[in-house]
Design goal:
The protein is mainly alpha-helical and 185 residues long. Helices cover 79% and strands 0% of the residues. The protein is built from 5 helices and no strands. The radius of gyration is 29 Å and the shape is rod-shaped. The termini are far apart.
Length: 185
């Protein structure tokens, strides 16, 4: 083989290897960018769903507080409180289901919303209207959810359940067990 031909083949081989490397590098870069874009999209979805859930809980707490400030002392007026609790917790539950890659948060929020809507377990305290005890029960549960979502949105670890919330969970479980034990059916 002549020297010129050999040099030409070596040059051509180098060009093919260089072009292949450039194509491989471009493909890898595109793939990395696509993965980054997908991750950023998921983070955006998580943030939006968490913000929507947080807004529902904050609105619930605000509406419950407004109800309590205008409470007339008649237990019949409690139906408005119960409507607020049930509607806002339902909206918060639906929004929380859309938070991707946050199973612990969704599980904890499910517990919070279960406690929030189980206000009948609150019972009554001596000298307090029963509906005010239920207001306090649901408002404190909403605050637990607000703190969970705030930590998630800040990118922090989820806080441990507060002692007050754990007490409500235990009271709820006891309430349900008592109802089952006394239910004739």
């Amino acid at each position: 083989m002549q020297t010129e031909t050999l040099v030409g083949l070596i040059g051509f081989g180098g060009a093919v290897v260089g072009a292949g490397g450039a194509l491989l590098g471009g493909w890898l870069q595109h793939r990395q960018q696509a993965d980054t874009a997908r991750r950023e999209r998921w983070e955006g979805y998580a943030r939006k769903a968490a913000e929507t859930t947080l807004t529902e809980l904050l609105t619930a707490q605000e509406e419950m507080t407004d109800w309590a400030m205008g409470f007339s002392g008649r237990e019949e007026d409690a139906n408005e409180l119960y409507r607020i609790i049930l509607e806002r917790s339902r909206s918060a539950r639906h929004s929380s289901l859309l938070i991707p890659e946050a199973s612990e948060l969704r599980s904890r929020l499910r517990e919070v919303l279960e406690v929030m809507t189980s206000f009948l377990a609150a019972g009554g305290q001596e000298g307090t209207f029963q509906s005010m005890s239920r207001f306090q029960w649901s408002s404190e549960a909403a605050q637990e959810g607000i703190e969970l979502l705030a930590a998630f949105l800040r990118g922090e670890r989820l806080p441990r359940p507060s002692p007050g919330f754990l007490d409500k969970r235990i009271r709820l479980i006891s309430h349900r067990a008592l109802r089952r034990a006394t239910d004739p059916s």
